[in-house]
Amino acid sequence: MLNAVDHIGIAVANIDDAMELYRRIFAVSEFHRETVDEQGVHIASFTVGGVRIELTAPSRPDSPIATFLAKRGEGIHHVAFRTDAITADLQRMQDQDIRLINTTPQPGAHNMQIAFLHPKSTGGVLMELCAPASPSPSSPLE
Predict the structure, then answer these.
(1) Cβ burial, residue 120 (10 Å; 0-12/13-18/19+)
(2) What tens digit of pLDDT does each residue of 65-97 get?
(3) What's the gap between Cα 91 and its chain centre?
(4) With CB atoms 3.0 to 4.6 Å apart as the test, which of 15, 25, 43, 68 could cross-link to 109 if both were Cys?
C-alpha cells in the first residue's frame, strides 16, 4: 500500500552544476551521491523539511532522463511514493487499467526497488513507486 511521499525527482543536465545551485538555495552541506547503472543516472540527493530531493542527471545518452531532458529540459521529473508492497501495488494498478512503464520492480537509488507509472494514466504526472530492497544474506544494507 502506498503510504508516504518518498522523494521528488528533478531532472538536471549537469549534476555538479545542479548541486552547486541547490547548495546555495537550501544551504545544503552534504549530498548523497550514487550512480544507478540500470537506470542510466547519476543521483545527488538531500533532505529538506523531511522530504528527499533527488537531482537526477543522465550517465549515458540513451537513458530515460536524457530523453526527458531533450524533450522538456530541466525541471521536476517525477514524484515518488513509498510502498510496503510494490509488486501487489503494481498488479492492483494494472488491474485498474493504470498504464505502467515498469511491470516489475527495478533497482533504484538508495537501495530501493522502483517502478514507474505512465503519466498518460496519472493526469500527466510521472509517478514512481519505491520500496526498500530486501537485503541479500551476502550483502547487508548500507
Answers:
(1) exposed
(2) 999 999 999 999 999 999 999 999 999 999 999
(3) 20
(4) 43
